[in-house]
Amino acid sequence: MLFDATGTPVAVGQREHRQIFPKPGWVEHDPAEIWLRTQEVVADALQRAGIVAGEIAAIGITNQRETTVAWDRLSGRPLCNAIVWQDTRTKDLCDELAKDGGQDRFRDKVGLPLATYFSGPKIRWMMENCPEVADAAKSKRLALGTIDS
After folding, report:
1. Which of 28, 38, 143, 134 lies closest to 86, judged by CA?
2. Number of domains composing the chain
3. pLDDT, tens digit, for every residue of 107-137?
Protein backbone atom coordinates (compact mmCIF):
# COMPACT_ATOMS: atom_id res chain seq x y z
CA MET A 1 0.00 0.00 0.00
CA LEU A 2 1.11 3.51 -0.72
CA PHE A 3 0.06 6.37 1.55
CA ASP A 4 0.44 10.10 1.08
CA ALA A 5 2.00 12.42 3.68
CA THR A 6 -1.30 12.61 5.59
CA GLY A 7 -1.63 8.82 5.87
CA THR A 8 -4.36 8.56 3.24
CA PRO A 9 -4.12 5.39 1.10
CA VAL A 10 -3.13 6.24 -2.48
CA ALA A 11 -2.59 2.86 -4.18
CA VAL A 12 -2.58 -0.87 -3.49
CA GLY A 13 -0.94 -3.84 -5.16
CA GLN A 14 -1.93 -7.39 -4.19
CA ARG A 15 -0.99 -10.88 -5.38
CA GLU A 16 -1.40 -14.29 -3.82
CA HIS A 17 1.32 -16.90 -3.51
CA ARG A 18 0.98 -20.66 -3.21
CA GLN A 19 0.37 -22.43 0.06
CA ILE A 20 2.28 -25.73 0.10
CA PHE A 21 1.11 -28.60 2.33
CA PRO A 22 3.57 -31.52 1.92
CA LYS A 23 2.16 -33.48 4.90
CA PRO A 24 -0.58 -32.97 7.49
CA GLY A 25 0.51 -30.17 9.83
CA TRP A 26 3.25 -28.97 7.47
CA VAL A 27 2.93 -25.58 5.79
CA GLU A 28 5.53 -24.17 3.41
CA HIS A 29 5.98 -21.21 1.08
CA ASP A 30 8.37 -20.78 -1.83
CA PRO A 31 10.67 -17.86 -0.83
CA ALA A 32 11.53 -17.12 -4.48
CA GLU A 33 7.83 -16.82 -5.28
CA ILE A 34 7.30 -14.48 -2.31
CA TRP A 35 10.17 -12.27 -3.51
CA LEU A 36 8.72 -12.22 -7.05
CA ARG A 37 5.24 -11.32 -5.75
CA THR A 38 6.77 -8.59 -3.56
CA GLN A 39 8.43 -7.00 -6.57
CA GLU A 40 5.20 -7.27 -8.56
CA VAL A 41 3.01 -5.61 -5.93
CA VAL A 42 5.49 -2.78 -5.41
CA ALA A 43 5.55 -2.16 -9.18
CA ASP A 44 1.73 -2.35 -9.31
CA ALA A 45 1.28 0.15 -6.49
CA LEU A 46 3.80 2.58 -7.98
CA GLN A 47 2.14 2.34 -11.38
CA ARG A 48 -1.35 2.85 -9.93
CA ALA A 49 -0.16 5.87 -7.97
CA GLY A 50 1.66 7.27 -10.99
CA ILE A 51 4.93 7.73 -9.13
CA VAL A 52 8.47 6.36 -9.23
CA ALA A 53 10.37 4.65 -6.43
CA GLY A 54 12.49 7.75 -5.79
CA GLU A 55 9.38 9.57 -4.62
CA ILE A 56 8.88 7.19 -1.69
CA ALA A 57 9.94 8.73 1.63
CA ALA A 58 9.76 5.60 3.80
CA ILE A 59 8.71 1.96 3.73
CA GLY A 60 7.26 -0.44 6.28
CA ILE A 61 7.19 -4.21 6.20
CA THR A 62 4.46 -6.43 7.53
CA ASN A 63 5.42 -10.05 7.49
CA GLN A 64 4.56 -13.55 8.57
CA ARG A 65 6.45 -13.22 11.84
CA GLU A 66 8.09 -16.61 12.39
CA THR A 67 7.99 -18.01 8.85
CA THR A 68 11.61 -19.15 8.52
CA VAL A 69 13.87 -19.05 5.45
CA ALA A 70 17.30 -20.52 4.68
CA TRP A 71 19.28 -19.09 1.78
CA ASP A 72 22.73 -19.10 0.26
CA ARG A 73 24.44 -15.89 1.36
CA LEU A 74 26.54 -15.81 -1.83
CA SER A 75 23.84 -16.35 -4.45
CA GLY A 76 20.87 -15.05 -2.44
CA ARG A 77 18.86 -18.09 -3.54
CA PRO A 78 16.65 -20.01 -1.09
CA LEU A 79 17.92 -23.47 -0.16
CA CYS A 80 14.50 -24.96 0.56
CA ASN A 81 10.93 -23.86 1.03
CA ALA A 82 10.23 -21.56 3.95
CA ILE A 83 8.62 -23.21 6.96
CA VAL A 84 5.51 -21.18 7.77
CA TRP A 85 4.67 -19.93 11.26
CA GLN A 86 1.71 -22.30 11.74
CA ASP A 87 3.68 -25.42 10.70
CA THR A 88 3.80 -28.09 13.43
CA ARG A 89 6.54 -30.43 12.15
CA THR A 90 8.79 -29.55 15.12
CA LYS A 91 6.30 -30.66 17.78
CA ASP A 92 8.34 -33.76 18.71
CA LEU A 93 11.52 -31.67 19.05
CA CYS A 94 9.74 -29.12 21.25
CA ASP A 95 8.24 -31.91 23.38
CA GLU A 96 11.66 -33.56 23.76
CA LEU A 97 13.31 -30.28 24.80
CA ALA A 98 10.48 -29.60 27.26
CA LYS A 99 10.97 -32.94 29.07
CA ASP A 100 13.72 -31.41 31.19
CA GLY A 101 12.36 -28.08 32.41
CA GLY A 102 9.01 -27.76 30.69
CA GLN A 103 7.79 -25.37 28.05
CA ASP A 104 9.53 -22.46 29.83
CA ARG A 105 12.92 -24.23 29.96
CA PHE A 106 14.69 -21.51 27.92
CA ARG A 107 12.47 -18.52 28.72
CA ASP A 108 15.05 -16.91 31.04
CA LYS A 109 17.65 -16.98 28.23
CA VAL A 110 15.54 -16.21 25.16
CA GLY A 111 12.34 -14.72 26.51
CA LEU A 112 10.12 -17.25 24.76
CA PRO A 113 8.51 -20.59 25.57
CA LEU A 114 9.23 -23.73 23.58
CA ALA A 115 6.72 -23.83 20.73
CA THR A 116 6.52 -24.96 17.11
CA TYR A 117 5.61 -21.35 16.23
CA PHE A 118 9.14 -19.97 16.71
CA SER A 119 12.02 -20.04 14.23
CA GLY A 120 14.59 -21.87 16.41
CA PRO A 121 13.05 -25.34 16.09
CA LYS A 122 12.38 -24.70 12.40
CA ILE A 123 16.05 -23.87 11.84
CA ARG A 124 17.14 -27.04 13.60
CA TRP A 125 14.71 -29.06 11.47
CA MET A 126 16.14 -27.51 8.29
CA MET A 127 19.72 -28.22 9.40
CA GLU A 128 18.87 -31.87 10.10
CA ASN A 129 16.53 -32.56 7.16
CA CYS A 130 17.60 -30.39 4.22
CA PRO A 131 20.99 -31.43 2.82
CA GLU A 132 21.34 -28.12 0.96
CA VAL A 133 21.02 -26.23 4.26
CA ALA A 134 23.56 -28.46 6.03
CA ASP A 135 26.00 -28.15 3.11
CA ALA A 136 25.68 -24.36 3.07
CA ALA A 137 26.33 -24.28 6.82
CA LYS A 138 29.49 -26.38 6.43
CA SER A 139 30.82 -24.08 3.71
CA LYS A 140 29.86 -20.91 5.64
CA ARG A 141 27.37 -19.83 2.96
CA LEU A 142 24.22 -20.28 5.10
CA ALA A 143 21.98 -17.39 6.00
CA LEU A 144 18.84 -17.89 8.10
CA GLY A 145 16.05 -15.60 9.09
CA THR A 146 12.37 -14.90 9.18
CA ILE A 147 10.59 -13.90 5.98
CA ASP A 148 11.33 -10.18 6.41
CA SER A 149 15.05 -11.04 6.11
Report:
1. 28
2. 1
3. 999 999 999 999 999 999 999 999 999 999 9
Residue 64 class from Cβ within 10 Å (0-12 exposed, 13-18 middle, 19+ buried)? middle
This prediction's pTM:
0.89
Q: CA–CA separation, 127 vs 105, rounded Å?
A: 22
| CATH number of the CATH domain containing 45 | 3.30.420.40
How many angstroms separate the CA atoms of 55 and 15, rounded? Answer: 23
Q: How far apart are the first and last CA of the chain?
A: 20
- Order the strands of the 28-29 sheet from edge to edge: 28-29, 82-83, 68-72, 142-146
What local confidence, expressed as pLDDT, does residue 63 receive?
75
9-11 vs 2-3, strand pairing mode: antiparallel
CB 61 within 8 A of CB 145: no
| Enclosing domain of residue 29 | 2-146
- In the three-class reduction of DSSP (H, G, I as helix; E, B as strand; rest coil), residue 142 is classed as strand
Let me know: does 127 contact 83? Beta carbons within 8 Å. no
